[in-house]
Structures are given as structure tokens and as C-alpha cells.
Amino acid sequence: MLNSIFILLVTVAISNVFEKNFQKIPGSYINITLGIILVIFPMTNKFILGFNAELFMLIIIAPLLFFEGQNTSNHVVRVELKSIIGTVLFLPIVTMVVLSVVLHWKFSLILPLAAMIVAVNIPTDATALSAVIGNKNISSRLNNTLKMESLFNDATGIVLLQAAILWLSAGKLLVIENSEHFVVSAVGGALFGGTAAFIIIIIRQIWIRSDINVISSQLLVYLLTPIIIYVVAEHIHISGIIAVVTAGLVHNSEAKRSRFSVPRQFHVSMQYINFISEILSNFVFVILGVTLCRIFLDQRNYALHNFNWLWVGISVYLVSLIARFFYALLSKYNGFDAIVFAFGGVHGAVTLSLTFSLLSESTSIVQSNYALILLSTTVVIILSMTVPAIVVRYILKLNDGEQKFDEDTKQKIKKNMVHQALLVVEEMKIETYVKGRVKYDLLDQISQTTLLDFVKEWRNQSRKMLFEKAEIKQEKQALMLAFKAEREYIKLLIHSKTISDELGYEIYGEILLSESLVIDPDNQFS
Q: Is the pTM of this model over 0.85?
């Protein structure tokens, strides 16, 4: 297992480098491609463990959904409640009924098998939405709808899949029993997740206000929260997915109203959340690439013998696309937004996870039918991740608003900002070597220092203590005045509308972080 984790993490690191240098290619595609390469080479493939659906949902999906829930305003959920019910109940059920009939009629599949194929393709993936919109903006209403759908419809897919499995084993569709199960699972998951999260929050808030508060322990409890809630919820047979999403929503309000109680703790928590979310998101797509490649290799005999899986997969994708488009029109979206919503139903690793769970949940499914489900689902995933990139990003152009700022613009502004700070430092009456170190630190903000400069600074720092106390104080005061000049420059640009608030506050925040490294003793090495 350690070898597998190590290889996957190194792959994620390499993927991030590629993503930085090839910004026109969505990062999810790069991750998937590298995952496929890992399987192609026997040297790496032999060290990577097989896909474990239960472990994947517990360790990766549950924390991701929890963090995504925490990043979602409760107000948005209340406002979008009608839309949530539509995308989590109405759209999946109608799609399942229509598609099951189409697959039964077109490919002579028995209805329970057709329902299974549709059910595993219900969950959508929020992390792959960038493949659809690129670096362009979409309306806030459409963005909220797609986000809410991806948060809650995983549970719908799980319940519908269980209903299809029971239909296959019992020989009849138990509508009332399945409806009751859905209500108990969904409502129970929401109640349990909300209650458990609230209790944990109260305990943590009491802890924060006590004399025994320890940041590391608080952070550990927080990171374990989604895993504990998911495990307990699944153990008592309610929706673990809805439980962790609800728990995340409850934590959203806590974060907004207690961020200044212990600022350092909140800041550390946010950094960990952002780091872990990014790693897990990339991890998901590397695993997806590995798994997709292995599916085709393992099922190649069946795949080459009968191409029904290909046409079934294409049919599922096209009918789902049409259903999503007309649902968006019924929801009073304009034609453009309806198209974006239709293509926004991107499927990913959760869909594969449901497919692999069939072997453990059902004993009534024969190997050939399982191969059909597995391969057709793979087709749906590939189509849902590639077609939107072509249709939406390059044909439709998504011409609906202002593009987000790019890195070149940001770097140009930061260069001008540092120039203002250097002018202030140049006028200071401080020791020459202190001034040199301050200039080095300021230029380092915009990567204007050479490797030779760094080696020289490193050698001097390693050999001896450079400054006496008075000189250390001089350096600190010089940097603080320089950062003040930078902040004043950015404030001027924001107030004059020269740059957007988003870009301005991002740079302003970076300056404050740099300043905290100077004035906060806990952010410094001895």
C-alpha cells in the first residue's frame, strides 16, 4: 500500500507541474493521462493496488464532499432548495425511467439491468466542472445549481442502484419500499450529519475557550470529522454522503462566526483544507485514469467480441444530455445556460466506485452483464469529460462575461508594487548590508533573484549569525515599512478601479502573509 500511495502522490506532484505550464489543458485531463501512463508501464503498474470502492468513498470522497459542503453558504442551500429537489429527485428519476425503457427497447436489456446502468451514471462530479467552463465565468444561478447537484445526487445514485439490485434479485420493482428507503436514507443522513456536526462544533468551541486548547489536536479532530460521520452513518444504514455534506454545511456557519477566536488556528485549518482538497481532487483523477485503463485491459476479450457496451454507453450519454437540456429549459434557463447545464453533468470516480460496488452488493449479476455495465459506464465517463471540453470551451466560447485575471497581469502589478517598496527602502538610513538583505527579500516576492543570489544568501546564513539585535530590529522595521508601501500601492489601484477587487485583495493578502512571517515569532525559524 505504501508503494502505491507514494507513486500516486509523486504522479500528482508531476501533474501539478504540467498543469502550471499547460494552462489551456484542464488539470483533470493531465491527471487522467498520467494515471493511464502508470498502468501502461509494468514497472509502476505492479505497485499500484486495485480499486477499493469502500476505501475510496471513505478516505477520499467523504472528506472532499465535507470540505465542499463547508465551502457552501447555508443561505445558498435555502435559496436553491427547489433546484436541489429538482436535480436530486425529479431529474434522476425521470432520466432513469426514460433511459431504462430506451435501453430495454433498443438493446433488449432486461429492465433491472438497464436501471443499474442508468443508476451508476447518476452522480455528477463538481471537481471536473473546470473541463466545461475553463477560465470563463458562468451565471451564479447556474453555478449554484451545478454545485448543489454534484453535492447531493451521489446519494440518489446509491439509492437508485440499490433499488435496481433489489429489482434484479426479487424479480419485481418494490416502489413503496424503495421510496421509504430513500426518505429514511436521505432525511436520516441529513439529520444525523447536522446533529453530529453541531455536537462536535459545541465541544470544539468549549475546548477553544478553555485553558487546554491545542491547535494540533483541534485540527486532528476537525480532519477526522467527515470520516467518523461517514462511517457511523453507513453503519446505521443511512446516507453517509448526505451526512458528510450536511456536516460540512453546518461547519460553514461555525467558520464564519469563530474565525477570530483563535486566528492562528483558523488560518492553519484553512491552509490544510486547501492543501488536502487540492491533493485529493488530483488524486481522484489519477486513480480514475489508472482504473479506466485497467478496465479496458481486463475486459478486452469481451470488449472486442461484442460492441454493445459502446453503443449502450453512447446512448446513456446522449439521452442524459437531452434530458438535462430540457430540464434546464423547464427550469427557465435561457438557451445558452441550458446547453451549459446539459454538458455540465460530468461523471467521474464516484460513478466508477458505484460500478465496482456491484460485485460486493449483488450476487444476481452475471459476469457478462457486469462487464457490460463496467465498459458502458467507462464510455459515459470519457464522453462526459471530453465532449464538453470541445463543445463548450471552443465552439460556444462561453461568451457570457468577463474572464478571470491571468498570471501575467498579476505578475506585472506585483513588479510595480515591489518597485514602490524598493524606492522606500532606498531612502532609508540603515546599514548597507541590512538594506541588501531587505532588497533581496522584496525581489524574491516576484522571483527576481537568481540562483547565484540564493546560494550566496544561503552560504552567509549558514556560516554565522549575521545580525546583532539592533540590526535584526532594523531589518524588521525596514521590511514592515516596505510592505506598508506595497499595501498602499495596491489599495490605490483597487480604489481607482485600475484592477479588480478579486485580484487586488489576492495580492493584498499575500503581502499580509509576508508581513506575518516577519512580525510573528511562531512563523519564524530560530
A: no
